[in-house]
Design brief:
- The structure is a single chain.
- The chain is of the alpha/beta class.
- The chain has nine helices and eight strands.
- Strand 4, helix 6 and strand 5 form a beta-alpha-beta unit.
- Helix 1 crosses helix 4 and helix 7 packs across helix 8.
Length: about 230
Amino acid sequence: MPPRRSISDFPMKKVSEYAHVVWDWNGTLLDDFWLCLKALNDLLATRQKPPVSAEFYREIFDFPVIKAYERLGFELPPGEFEKISAFFMDIYEAHRWECTLHKGARRFVHKLAALGLTQSVLSAYRHDRLQEIIAEHDLEKYFVRLSGNDDIYGNDKSYRAAGHLKKLGLPATSVLYVGDTLHDVETARAMGVDCVLIDWGETAHMARERLLAAGVPVVRDYTELL
């Protein structure tokens, strides 16, 4: 068995050494773990499947999201994934206004702006809904660019990474990507930029050991980026 890894295994530059931060949204700035778990368990109930625990959710959650359903044993004939995705998102959208930002998120985003860094969001959330929810949290003024998917299916966002960086007009060495899942690491690598993951513990979407296996720094909160 390989040795357990910690943040000290992966040297990390201070955020002030970068010119720009690309944020993931869901789970990184927005605390929506509880809602995703609720929506999934509501879905499982309609399929006569037992609910999953928070710990099990953190072990099977992934991107593209279809991987998680496959791990849960869903049969996915043509059209089925689209149906269950629509059900999940109906629950999510009905309750998204109940979600809050992670502790310190607003203050940290403001601090980065005060330090002179520009910021953007690259998300798997549908683009129009991404715009709406960021406006709902009064954060749109901090982001020079928002990029979301064109559907509700939680698909791979790494294919948009290079284009996002190109539109920023910045060298990759000046950009830091901050996320909370292994797919964020994949996306950062597709962009060619440094990546840091945040482990929110009991409200994280992925287990800490999964995050540490990614080979990038893993922090407990925003202040560790300073």
